[in-house]
């Protein structure tokens, strides 16, 4: 075999290790389906949706404080003691304005949050569909699509709330306080066991959430069982990334610049990496052996032979003069030769 025809190192590794070939197929599907582009869009809508959600949160706090004037007075007194001068007065006026405009603030926040949430869900569903090798159905009704996205958004919201609640219940600190209240907190090795239990429960909860997202959110009917391994892959990567992100946040929040910009940058990186994990895991599920289908290669188009006919052009003035000069020189040469 010639030297240039030998397979490269990646080809040899793919032929030798089936799992590596599967990873490479998933990466090719991810790149071909513009996974980074979709992950960036999901990150944008995730960060953008936080602002209207914060508005809704402020409105809810405003409704609570409007019924508790004693609590409002206590908060204002603490603000004035903590922040002196004109800035403290501005904070108090800002809080009073938020309480007075709580209704409009809540309505605008809900409307913008709904719009941003629909954009987030539409981008996520389209990305998952692309990873599975599908596309947006042709001729889909706009209102039917938005209604479907709204139902999927509400389902995802409920699933995320349940996940957060179960994660909080499985928190090692909460369980440790419960055991301390019962009176059995001094058992040797209990702290390590509770931490491992919390990680295992968090991993199981994330597994269920990611499996549901990979199997139910794409715009096509898919098998739930074929998405479980992809959900487990995403959950393991997500749990590892959570541990790294917690170390990152603890390291940057001590300085003033880190406290100001660190959480925002951390949130963006967290959303982007999580989106990439979900999309790559979906591509991994779509390229598994039980989901691959034989591609239909269409026959080549018939060959078309086109004949180009070009008309011969006549001599121009310069070419004519050159021909006359060459003819005269040839005649002179022949005459001289005949005399010799």
In short:
The protein is mainly alpha-helical. It has twelve helices and no strands. It folds into two domains: 7-33 and 145-292, no CATH class; 34-130.
Textual characterization of the structure:
- With 340 residues, the protein is mainly α.
- It folds into two domains: 7-33 and 145-292, no CATH class; 34-130.
- The protein has helices at 9-16, 18-32, 35-66, 69-82, 86-100, 102-131, 142-169, 172-182, 190-216, 228-252, 256-286, 317-339.
- The model has no long low-confidence stretch (mean pLDDT 75).
| Low-confidence region ranges | none
Specify the structural class. Answer: mainly alpha
Let me know the average pLDDT. 75
Most strands sheet: none
Could you spell the SSE succession in H and E letters?
Answer: HHHHHHHHHHHH
* N- and C-termini, Cα separation: 69 Å
Shape: elongated
């Amino acid at each position: 075999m010639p030297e240039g025809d030998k397979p490269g190192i990646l080809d040899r590794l793919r032929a030798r290790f089936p799992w590596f070939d599967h990873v490479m197929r998933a990466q090719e599907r991810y790149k071909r389906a513009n996974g980074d582009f979709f992950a960036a869009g999901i990150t944008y809508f995730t960060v953008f949706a936080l602002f209207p959600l914060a508005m809704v949160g402020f409105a809810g706090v405003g409704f609570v404080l409007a019924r508790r004037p004693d609590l409002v007075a206590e908060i204002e007194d603490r603000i004035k003691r903590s922040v002196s001068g004109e800035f403290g007065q501005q904070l108090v006026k800002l809080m009073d304005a938020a309480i007075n405009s709580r209704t409009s603030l809540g309505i605008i926040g809900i409307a913008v949050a709904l719009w941003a949430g629909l954009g987030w869900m539409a981008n996520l569903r389209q990305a998952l569909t692309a990873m599975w090798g599908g596309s947006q159905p042709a001729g889909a009704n706009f209102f039917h699509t938005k209604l479907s996205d709204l139902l999927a958004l509400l389902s995802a919201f409920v699933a995320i709330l349940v996940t957060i609640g179960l994660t909080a219940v499985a928190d090692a600190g909460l369980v440790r306080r419960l055991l301390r209240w019962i009176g059995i907190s001094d058992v040797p090795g209990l702290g390590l066991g509770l931490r491992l239990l919390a990680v295992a429960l968090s991993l199981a909860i994330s597994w269920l959430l990611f499996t549901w997202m990979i199997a139910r959110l794409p715009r096509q009917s898919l098998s739930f069982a074929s998405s479980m391994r992809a959900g487990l892959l995403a959950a393991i990567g997500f749990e590892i990334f959570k541990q790294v992100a917690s170390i990152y946040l603890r390291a940057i929040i001590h300085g003033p610049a880190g406290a100001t910009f660190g959480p925002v940058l951390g949130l963006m990186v967290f959303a982007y990496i999580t989106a990439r994990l979900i999309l790559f895991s979906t591509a991994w599920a779509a390229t598994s052996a039980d989901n691959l289908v034989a591609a239909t290669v269409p026959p080549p188009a018939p060959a078309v032979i086109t004949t180009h006919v070009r008309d011969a052009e006549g001599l121009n003035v310069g070419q004519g003069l050159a021909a006359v000069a060459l003819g005269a020189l040839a005649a002179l040469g022949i005459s001289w030769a005949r005399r010799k």
